[in-house]
């Protein structure tokens, strides 16, 4: 009896131990690409939770970001430092970056790796876009807070705190090789396989929750890639403030154009979809309600110009209001931002170009469309009056003529005979019969 129990235990051990070992020596890989927003917090949490459920050896986050919202960054750092598996931030691919908010996230992780050709740093906090078109710098107390915060992240992981501080005070950025030499990161790797080989046997820079510092064991590890969902892909693009802004304005154009020229329904339908996507994207990134109200006011000016032309008065007012609204839209309405200044430089160009295009569209295109729509439509048989045709069957006084490629029953106006081949002009329509006269009469 005891022998049977021992055999059963051995069978169960042999059956389940290999799978448990394989599961424990699994590395998850996920990708975060784009702006750091409230949605990015959900992505990090979802990916890390998947790795925790599988009791993975680690999760590698391939990160490529120009930065984003400061509050979202702090939530991500807290999630990483409370993870039950090691979280490795891998700045990837070549040409990518961990700028601004991405720098904080990297320094808060258990291990940092970078691909050749990537950069990290430049993470001074800003408050958005000012009414004069310039970037609004954060006040000293906010800057000092983030200096202390970033230094603490670096010091607790034994990384170069002095260089970390310079990322803020001097807007400094470094390449992957420089970051390795200065002790900001741990590994430079060309791809995930290279990363696994180089980090095998390394100890995490900060403790893993419930485990302390962990020595990584990636020998013969099974790599599981977590694919982004369709929603992840869509949100990645619409949370880019430039794309969200363009979608917002195209949405306004579609809806307004649809209402000015009713009957087709396509412009307002497409416009509504783009408007909602733009608002969702701006909601994740953060925006000022005052700026949105100014854009709506600009649209009212443009509509007024299309309906009641004022020789440019409403167009000028709309263009100016539109530019101010676009600039204020990205003002200090969403807290602090940790984002590359290049994002706002691009926004400035897009706002001005969109304002000019909108003014021209409503001053000329929309006004012309409204006039055309108000014109009495000519359709059906009525448009045949005045048209010319050719006699196919002699009119004596009735016969057949060809008009616009179609055969019609025709009647000579004065009852005269008109031979085949003659050209005639339609002067009246009675039912399905065309009343004609000889061309030249």
TrEMBL record:
Any single GO CC term annotated in Swiss-Prot or TrEMBL for this entry: membrane
Keywords of this entry: Membrane, Transmembrane, Transmembrane helix
Cell location: Membrane
NfeD1b N-terminal domain span: 27-179
Coiled coil: none
Listed Pfam families: NfeD, NfeD1b_N, NfeD_membrane
Chain ranges of the NfeD-like C-terminal domain: 382-438
Domain of life: Archaea
Domain (NfeD integral membrane) ranges: 242-362
Topology in the lipid bilayer: Multi-pass membrane protein
Name this protein carries in UniProt: Nodulation protein nfeD
Natural source organism: Thermococcus onnurineus (strain NA1)
């Amino acid at each position: 009896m005891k022998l049977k129990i021992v055999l059963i235990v051995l069978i169960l051990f042999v059956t389940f131990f290999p799978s448990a070992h394989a599961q424990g020596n699994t590395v998850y890989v996920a990708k975060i690409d784009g702006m750091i927003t409230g949605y990015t917090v959900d992505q990090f949490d979802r990916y890390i939770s998947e790795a925790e459920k599988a009791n993975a050896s680690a999760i590698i986050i391939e990160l490529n970001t120009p930065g984003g919202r400061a509050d979202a960054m702090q939530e991500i750092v807290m999630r990483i430092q409370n993870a039950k598996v090691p979280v490795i931030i891998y700045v990837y691919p070549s040409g990518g970056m961990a700028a601004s908010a991405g720098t904080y996230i990297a320094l808060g992780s258990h291990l940092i790796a970078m691909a050749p050709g990537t950069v990290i740093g430049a993470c001074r906090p800003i408050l958005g876009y000012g009414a004069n078109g310039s970037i609004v710098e954060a006040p000293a107390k906010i800057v000092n807070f983030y200096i202390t915060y970033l230094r603490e992240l670096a010091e607790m992981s034994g990384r170069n705190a002095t260089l970390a501080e310079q990322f803020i005070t001097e807007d400094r950025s470094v390449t992957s090789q420089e970051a390795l030499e200065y002790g900001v990161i741990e590994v430079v790797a060309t791809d995930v396989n290279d990363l696994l080989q180089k980090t095998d046997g390394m100890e995490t820079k900060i403790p893993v929750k419930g485990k302390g510092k962990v020595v990584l064991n990636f020998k013969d590890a099974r790599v599981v890639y977590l694919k982004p969902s369709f929603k992840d892909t869509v949100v990645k693009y619409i949370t880019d403030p430039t794309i969200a802004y363009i979608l917002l304005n195209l949405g306004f154009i579609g809806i307004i154009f649809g209402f000015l020229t009713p009957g087709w329904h396509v412009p307002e339908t497409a416009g509504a979809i783009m408007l909602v996507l733009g608002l969702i994207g701006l909601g994740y990134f953060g925006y000022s309600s005052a700026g949105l109200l100014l854009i709506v006011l600009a649209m009212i000016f443009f509509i007024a110009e299309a309906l009641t032309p004022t020789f440019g008065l409403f167009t000028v007012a709309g263009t100016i209001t539109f530019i101010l609204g676009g600039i204020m839209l990205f003002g200090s309405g969403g807290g602090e931002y940790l984002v590359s200044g290049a994002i706002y430089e691009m926004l400035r160009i897009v706002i001005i170009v969109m304002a000019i295009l909108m003014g021209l569209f409503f001053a000329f295109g929309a006004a012309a469309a409204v006039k055309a729509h108000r014109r009495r439509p000519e359709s059906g048989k009525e448009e045949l009056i005045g048209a010319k045709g050719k006699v196919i069957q002699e009119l004596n006084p009735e016969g057949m003529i060809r008009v616009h490629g179609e055969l019609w029953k025709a009647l000579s106006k004065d009852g005269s005979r008109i031979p085949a081949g003659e050209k005639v002009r339609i002067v009246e329509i009675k039912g399905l019969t065309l009343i004609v006269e000889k061309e030249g009469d």
